[in-house]
Fold these 4 entries.
Entry 1:
Amino acid sequence: MRIIKTESIIDVVKDMCIKANIHLSQDMEDTIRKAAAEEDSKLGRQIMNQLCDNLDIAARDEIAICQDTGMAVFFVNIGQDVHLEGMNITDAINEGVRRGYKEGYLRKSVVSDPLLRVNTNDNTPAIIHYDIVPGDKLEITIAPKGFGSENMSRVFMLKPADGEEGVKEAIVKAVMEAGPNACPPVFVGVGLGGDFELSAELAKKALTRKAGEHSKLPHIARIEEEVLDTINKSGIGPGGLGGKTTALAVNIETYATHIAGMPLAVNMCCHVNRHVTVVI
Ligand code: SF4
């Protein structure tokens, strides 16, 4: 049994909030720069180059890549041989978010009530997904999520008879309906299977996959490639202004499901696909 003092998580989370909002991971950055070099449309290439310049400026001046610094979404894997000691882990994570968004001068984008809409002024509460896993480590991933793209996300309760074609059509439909609103080029996170809420969680988790990686399931990896190809033939392009770079990846995570259903969630993410992982 390994003891981890939850107070020690606060500063780790604070730094993760700041880092995630200022620097894209190298794999994400490389993907964007490669797409910029390969875009055929003149206007599309201009937009892509502006996105690259924006990344450079954010890193140089230590400022957020985008004004929408998102809701702080976390995936936390707790090793079953870890004993968390001290304050409640959820409170520790929220305290880290509070400090990170304040000290990093990151926009506070959270309201305490969906209808009354009073800003909490510290970007809390975070959205935290916990998993118990083997081992004695604590793995924390932050994925700050902007809502331009979040608002264009969809859940489709497909029927088994919809099959592979139904899955492909639904993903493409979500991206086409999002058009320029999701700030393309986008990353498309897909959760296929499970139930209503698990499909949505899988879709969000799919966005944290390393750029360039495909599903380990050959039939799913094939669908990822085919759907990406279809989306990029749509001509929506960077910023919705035309070009072949509409999506940078389609990542599909799957789970077992019920004989009567085939839930499919599409979580749209703009090119600012931020995430940082720390293992304690
Ligand atoms: S969708 Fe992404 S790029 Fe667009 S405003 Fe939100 S965080 Fe920024």
Note: Residues 42-61 form the longest helix (20 residues).
Entry 2:
Amino acid sequence: MRVVILFGTEMGTAESAADSIAEELREAHDVSVHDMTDFDIADLDPRHFHVVVCSTYGDGDIPTGAEPFYDALDRHRPALHGLRFAVFGLGDTVYGDTFNRGGEIIAERLVECGATQVGEHARHDASTEIRVADMAREWAATLDIPTLVSA
Ligand SMILES: Cc1cc2nc3c(=O)[nH]c(=O)nc-3n(C[C@H](O)[C@H](O)[C@H](O)COP(=O)(O)O)c2cc1C
């Protein structure tokens, strides 16, 4: 199945997590990775499985790189029924209550548009020693994405 990975980042960590997830999934799927900054919401397609990789900035806000995507969803409210997505969020517990809000904010908006979140909502914590790349790969391996048998 085609897997579309969308990352939203401020400093690049979410992009490297997206790349690690792509590496893990490429063996079994046709994978593409996109910066949310450049992704047209008209290309959200329920036939594809989506992975959202998003960090948190400010006071529990989405990073700058996710703003165009979020704003477009907010403005156009596309009907995304049937679209399945999973979320790998990034944050830091040092920020308390706002921990990992970025990925949650994007997930909430996609669900409001009719999409369905699946799998475990991953929340990387930059205050731990767990490497983002390791956690991202392990998490990606747990996703239940149908494999299409080619005709
Ligand atoms: C100025 C600043 C504000 C941040 N605010 C939050 C926050 O409110 N909540 C949170 O969980 N993490 C917060 N973080 C942590 C980042 O989300 C975390 O370091 C993440 O790995 C960065 O990913 P990125 O490089 O893709 O942007 C903040 C980091 C910085 C530098």
Note: The mean pLDDT is 96.
Entry 3:
Amino acid sequence: MIAEALEIARSIRARDPARPTVAESVLCYAGLHAVLWHRLAHRLWRAGLRAPARCVSHLSRFLTGIEIHPGARIGRRLFIDHGMGVVIGETAEIGDDVLIYHGVTLGGLTLKPGKRHPTLEDGVVIGAGAQVLGPIRIGRGARVGANAVCVDPVPDGVTVVGIPARPPGKPCEDPTAGYGIAPGALESVEERMAALRAEIAALKERLSLRA
Ligand SMILES: CC(C)(COP(=O)(O)OP(=O)(O)OC[C@H]1O[C@@H](n2cnc3c(N)ncnc32)[C@H](O)[C@@H]1OP(=O)(O)O)[C@@H](O)C(=O)NCCC(=O)NCCS
């Protein structure tokens, strides 16, 4: 646990422009404390000790203002900056080197049990106040803007903002026009796939005409 505290503290120092010392990060960053409390709660949860796990998680919430369900899976070096008001649901999964600001919810949209919370891949950034809802995947290195409401998957490396969250910028008039496909102009992954298939078919046809 000490090793993990130091690892997170070093990563906070690297990512927080306020450049706290490692000692400051260990002593004064609620996000770091919340992750360490969660490690204990998660261990109890996995051992079937659900009530003690919930008690630890509740104590952590009282002390840090960050609510992480003991069932949530969290990777290495998660940095919850400021932290107050963060809620992370039971089936949420978080990769390595993720950055989450205050007021973020990784929540569900259904009462049905099973996977119902988001999966954040490595290096994701979730801006302050953003709500990421449902069993969606936020791709590696993707960013969700402050106060966005994100209910659709976000591909690797893409930034989304607003409600509903979409890549910023003016949507293109004809979203299927060649490589001019504006990010976010298409409504769903299915539609994006259909556009890509059409593109491939057109290219194949052009190649066969040349042969
Ligand atoms: C989404 C974000 C990562 C984008 O950063 P960026 O790549 O530098 O983007 P830009 O600032 O160049 O903005 C690109 C466009 O998105 C818009 N935009 C940026 N953030 C936005 C947001 N949260 N909501 C709505 N629109 C936003 C900008 O107005 C701009 O629009 P335009 O192209 O029409 O002018 C960033 O703005 C953000 O929200 N980060 C979260 C930071 C945070 O929570 N900080 C809390 C610290 S305590």
Note: Residues 138 and 208 are 38 Å apart (CA to CA).
Entry 4:
Amino acid sequence: MTSARELGLCRCHTCGLLVRYQVGSVCPRCASKLQVRIPRSLAWSWGFLALATFMLLPANLLPITHFYNKGLLQSDTIFSGIMALYRSKMGGIATIVLTASILVPVGKILGLGWICWQLQRSKPVRRKRQLLMYRVIDFIGRWSMLDLFVISLMVALVDRGVMLSVRAGPGATAFAGVVVLTMMSARMLDTRLLWDKAAR
Ligand SMILES: [Zn+2]
């Protein structure tokens, strides 16, 4: 299958307009700089992914919430918060929080890592796998804020009726870091690289 690049065309990465490409030209519609491929896309993507993986440690080990329980300052990590929800017979919410705060972020990191690795290999990618990879990136991009939303819900819901004030701990900042870095990794990954790797 012919790609736009082979025809001397380039799709604007900002507004999607298809234009005839010349080095250094800008998009006639939105004035963004035109790039046939994002420069060093894979290196950027790997870099953000490595940082996101590293941030998983403080996100899971440091307290995500601090609260007062009967006058005593207590803290919850993501995991102890989930266990507390289960113990308080809020299994449904606990499952949602577990999915959004552990399974989804780790799944996104593994998915992006797999795609980067496949793109890096010299072996061409088969069309079916290529499309699957494209859909994974698309899916990650579309739902990238969901876990951040759910975790903020958790901070509100974890109020088990015993505390006067809840505030976010350093783990919450690290978790937001994981989400944002994963988003940056997905954003820097140029999906057009997938078409260049097509099995011929
Ligand atoms: Zn444009």
Note: The mean pLDDT is 83.
